[in-house]
Amino acid sequence: MQPIISIKGLQKTYASGHRALKGVDLDIRRGEIFALLGPNGAGKTTMIGAICGLVNATGGSVTVDGYDNVRDYREARARIGLVPQELNTDQFESVRATVAFSRGLFGRPRNPALVEQVLRDLSLWDKRDNEIRELSGGMKRRVMIAKALAHEPDILFLDEPTAGVDVELRRDMWAMVRKLRDRGVTIILTTHYIEEAEEMADRVGVIIGGELILVEETSVLMKKLGRKELIVQLAEPLPAIPPELADWHLELTAEGRELRYVFDRHAERTGVPSLLGRLRDLGINFSDLSTHQSSLEEIFVDLVHGRRAA
Ligand SMILES: Nc1ncnc2c1ncn2[C@@H]1O[C@H](COP(=O)(O)OP(=O)(O)OP(=O)(O)O)[C@@H](O)[C@H]1O
């Protein structure tokens, strides 16, 4: 199937000279939930802006459902709903009018029943006549989503949808995202949280320093990220790893005082009990054991180094 969004060599250099996107290639599949994961300043918002035509790319191209997002801007943009990180709406307007107006902006005919449905889906119906400024922060976020959905887009972008929201809103947000996906809407969200990507996304892209360094099915990525390290502090230093321990592919560090074993924390058999049993059989005593789970930051660093080495 033809991808719904096709990004080729996308570049953005800001007037300051900062290269926020360094040639990104990516195809978004029709109907998937795609999470763009990366630390602060990685280029996530710039990338969304460049796809939606809000940021002028300095190189490359983007097609949305076959429409070039510069040449055929209106056609491309009409297919996209965008929920930005920041609130950008008239604070004195009512909730219902805001959402209905947004539909009109895309040249869609009036459809009060649809606006009602969108407001109900987002638990905003009771607030329909309130002015935006009277709403709580969480409610305002919901309005931004309603606004993005008012013209029935095929693609929804959510820029850090759960940054600073409470548990209830987060849960509602995910329920809504799943419902939209079931209706065939393609969803692209940005996040700092690996757990969020794990829970929600079909695929994950990792962006660092303006480069998309990895795109992977979530299940495959989680396997890679599930690596954990066991460190065995030895009572007596070893000159070398005994051949009887070859199966575990250990590393001997700290001048022979530590054995390091990397395992998959999701695996049914981690190999840890058998390793400890074998150490005992070989008469290798240890003074302490500790485990270490890679943090997202370390994983990012590893990915970047791995890429440089390659
Ligand atoms: N208008 C601008 N002018 C100059 N530099 C900018 C501009 N907008 C963003 N940048 C820079 O481009 C880089 C990428 O910013 P961007 O907002 O895309 O990152 P992000 O991954 O969305 O970060 P965050 O997770 O913090 O939202 C950052 O270094 C940022 O300072």
Automatic annotation (TrEMBL):
Pfam families hit by this protein: ABC_tran
Keywords: ATP-binding, Nucleotide-binding, Transport
Stretches assigned to the ABC transporter domain: 5-234
GO MF term set: ATP binding
Keyword Transmembrane helix: no
Gene3D superfamilies given in the database record: P-loop containing nucleotide triphosphate hydrolases
Keyword flag Protease: no
PANTHER family: ABC TRANSPORTER ATP-BINDING PROTEIN
Protein name per its UniProtKB record: ABC transporter ATP-binding protein
Natural source organism: Sphingomonas olei
